[in-house]
Amino acid sequence: MLDSIIFYFFAGVAILSAALMVTRRNAIHSAVFLITTLLATAGIFLQLRAEFLFIAQIILYVGGIMVLFVFVIMLVRLDVPLNHITFRFQKWVALFVAMALACEVGVMFWYVRRLPSAGLLTPPAPSPDKLPPNSEQFAKVLFSNYLLPFEIASVLLLVAMIGAVIMAKKRT
Amino acid sequence: MSPALHSMISFLQTWWVQLASGVLIVAVVPLIAGYVVLVERKLMADMQARLGPMRVGPHGLLQPIADALKLLIKEDIIPDDADKVIFWLAPVVSMTAALVSMGAVAFGPWFQVAKDINIGILFILGVSSLGLFGIVLGGWASNSHYALIGALRSTAQLVSYETAAGLAIISGLLLAGTLQIRSIVDAQQHYGVWFIFLAPVAFFIYLVASIAETNRAPFDLPEAESELVAGYMTEYSGFRWALYFLGEYANMIVVAAVATTLFLGGWLRPFPNVRWLNWLDLLPALFTAAVGVYCVYRAGKQPVRVQTLFMWAVAALCFLVALILAATLLVPLLQAARPGLLGAFWFMLKVGGYIYVFMWLRFTLPRYRFDQLMHLGWYLLIPLAIVNVFSVGMAMMLESEFGWNRWLALVVTMLFTLLAAAFLLHLNDKRTAAASSAAAETSDSYAG
Amino acid sequence: MMPVGHYLFLSLALFIIGAIGVITRRNVIVILMAIELILNAVNINLVAFSRIFGDVHGQVFALFIIADAAAEAAVGLGIIIAFFRNRETVLADEMDLLKW
Prior knowledge:
- The structure holds three protein chains of three kinds.
- Chain A has three domains: 1-84, Up-down Bundle (Four Helix Bundle (Hemerythrin (Met), subunit A)), CATH 1.20.120; 86-119; 133-172.
- Chain A is an all-alpha fold.
- Chain A has six helices and no strands.
- In chain A, α1 runs antiparallel to α2 and α2 (27-47) packs antiparallel against α3 (51-75).
- Chain B has two domains: 16-268 and 362-427, no CATH class; 276-359.
- In chain B, α5 (131-141) runs antiparallel to α6 (145-176) and α9 packs antiparallel against α10 (239-262).
- The longest helix of chain B is centred in the N-terminal third of the chain and has 46 residues, at 2-47.
- Chain B is globular, with a radius of gyration of 24 Å.
- Chain C has a single domain, classed as Helix Hairpins.
- Chain C has helices spanning 4-24, 28-53, 57-87.
- The chains are: A mainly alpha, B mainly alpha, C mainly alpha.
- Chains in contact: A-B, A-C.
């Protein structure tokens, strides 16, 4: 019961903030709404008992990436009021894409509705107290099965750091 | 309706302690932060050979209440073109981040709101980094140059020193082997010494980084009065400014609590495992009783009658606390309360000591210029923190794989870290010498 | 743990909103933010399924997606700043140097 209240609360906040984010005129308002969406997503992770990912989302996404976004928005702030008047053509393209995506998933659900548990083939989820401590399990899997992707990800971050510094340097 | 009501009642039954502690934190922490401000003003006065606030209440003890009243009834000024929603939101975010991160702090083995979460230290680190948004949004929403520049500088400083603080925390976590706060303190009890003795360089890095994290002097350029007026807080007046200020002091308490948990042994007394030093358990009671005796001694020397009465009241309070602490030791019925109360006392003492060091540094050291500050963070602290993580890891591997003595491994690797630190400082000297010689060459054109 | 269809629906909704944002907005910074929203939607999906199967492989993958999103945001914003320095604009329809 508590589980479903938490889920509906965070899901509602996430969808509402996302909708507000893509419709705001002011870029800083969009950034603030994206922050609330990311925090709501972190709440969903917590509800799914993914504790490490919850705090990784907050530290990395909200505390890192969004700070970067807010900095750049402040730096390239133009005084021209930026409106979201779209081209007439593009609005319909967006609607078409949204319909296509929704139809795709809807058709899939429709076709599998006769199969047991709607074809999702999900085993019953383990109850929360039988789960091992999340951080330890996470670390064990990350540093044994996924050691190579971990190293590659660190090289990727190094390359991105160098690239961003070079991109943003002033050419003297 | 009955099953929903039942589940609500059972929810309250399991979680009422946490809910009550949460409400207590939100209600009490601003008051405590106000009194920390008073302590700082009194200490500043003492170090500057003057008396500090003496007028409001006996010895100035009602000063925070007077300040709070003044700030509440002040006019609420909002700049003309400011973004009203974000102007309102920014101090709220700052204060909320500080208070939520206080939820995971364990003030002793019994008093913790978010009990035994798996990711303890990381939770505090992550949520307190959300306070950044309070600063950067506040600076932007003020629609003023000084505020924006101050906010960007402050955010850049916080982000840089957060990295160094995180790396320093990792050294402590390597020794503890877990992120859970209770297990970290238990690990220190298991090792027998506080982690500050096992990783002193990490403690030093965390001390410096946490001073920069909370925008305290000598790293307080973004909010210094002689610089950018007041940085991101320029356009905030009245209660909004009070929220920022209280958020900063609550952040200070949280940062001190993290350092205490990781490096200073949390709620353990000094030498926690040594049995013949068990009489050290009497120290809290003796200390409080000594403070009470001192109050009685000073009571006779007060010039004004209300101050004398007040001193007697404080002395009585101190003796009461000493009695409670001693009772947990001596009365067999109350033995079970011993770890909780004594642990809380030791924890508060250590947090107080750490904050005292913060204040001491504030009154003693001159301010860093912003480029010096960033240079210190990126060129000195972060490389040193990385080398420190590497060396603590090496020490643990030497101990477990090669069977070295733990202390020998730690001393050897710490020497390596100090060597790296000396090398970094040498590089720093070369750079500042080159910069100043370049400046000397270019400024010669106007000489003579 | 809700039935997994709920998480799929939430993920789909965020994905669609992100896709609409990418297509309709003019400000390239907001387009980048909508891309982050899409990546988040995928993350929710991964973590929901990892919870059902009881292991953490989905969560590890989600962590790699977060790290990748960080790298991409950094480089993307660097490009935007470099472009802004040259052309003084951040609107997508004014970035038409390659058009005939």
